[in-house]
Amino acid sequence: MAWNNAVPGLILAALAAFSAAATGAWARTIENWPCRIPYAEEIPAAAIWQSPPALRLDGSWRDDEAVRTVVRYAVDPENRPERGMEAISALARTAGAGREEALVKVFTGLVEETNGFHRIIVTGIRNFILRAKILAEAVDANDAEIKALTGSQTDKARRRAIKEARFWNFRNMDDAEEEAEFLCRRLGYLEKKLRRLAEHTRAEMKWD
Question: H or E element: which one contains 23?
């Protein structure tokens, strides 16, 4: 089997093995976490909401159509925080005596829906870190084999093939690291957006 064809297969097999292992120890922590914000599987509601009334993180907010519509609109990545805040304010104006209850449901929904996206992004970061790790090991293996080659014509041809494989392994490793860094920025934005929406929701609990 040619080296160029063998290497991708080996990398894919290793990536599958590492991804399976991630459901264990790596599900609780991620080595070489690349993000500035601390690692967490999800954003705890207590970190965003410290005041009463108590929250019910049981998904019951989905039973209220008006609340469900506002939450999903506000959390939608396509919508800026300001648009979500406008939707929250509109709901508050029409909620009447049930204003506080509706807004507590909104906040609960914001946390739960945001954490859905949070978990997806964390999984993406984990996968890119794993990919970069596997590719780094492949690059090291390329370097070791190149070093072991002699000057024969057969080895010269093999050296060229391995150098090409190393080039692509290194390039793909660099791409994986960049993708992880990009997702880190998305993760930070996601948390900032949730905090802004939560602060606005809390402010809307007070009657003008």
Answer: none
